[in-house]
Specification:
This protein has 113 residues and is α/β, with parallel strands linked by helices. It has one domain (2-90): NADH:ubiquinone oxidoreductase Nqo5 subunit (Beta Polymerase, domain 2, 2-Layer Sandwich), CATH 3.30.460.80. The protein is 18% helix and 33% strand. A four-stranded mixed sheet has the order 1-4-3-2. The longest helix has 12 residues, at 75-86. 23% of the residues are buried.
Length: 113
């Protein structure tokens, strides 16, 4: 099931939904669609074949969003990847997973900013 949410309610929605004994955080997926960043936080249910939940929202690349790593610590890796490869601004998440912290490249961004 896909939940379309706005970025303002993202953290609250995930915090309300996420039960670590039931759901596995799979990844944060990002894509650049005509200059807008489409984000998907993907979860799978333990021991249930093909049962997934997706939280999806669109955000402008100039907008800073909140990290969910305080709710799901493993999310930090996916967040760092999105910061490096798309140039998205996530609060308290720095560059440096794949690219140098001073790199100005965003390899997966449509305009390759």
């Amino acid at each position: 099931m896909t939940h379309k949410i706005d970025i303002i309610n993202l953290k609250k929605s995930i915090k309300h939904f996420y039960k670590p004994e039931i759901w596995h955080f799979v990844t944060l997926n990002a894509s650049d669609i005509d200059g807008v960043c489409k984000l998907q936080w993907i979860f799978s249910k333990y021991e249930q074949k093909d049962e997934i939940e997706v939280f999806e929202c669109d955000v402008d690349f100039d907008t800073s969003i909140d990290s969910i790593a305080d709710i799901i610590p493993s999310a930090i890796m996916s967040e760092m990847e999105v910061v490096d490869l798309f140039g998205l601004k996530i609060n308290n998440v720095n560059k440096g997973l794949y690219l140098d912290e001073t790199s100005t490249k965003t390899p997966l961004r449509g305009n390759n900013a």
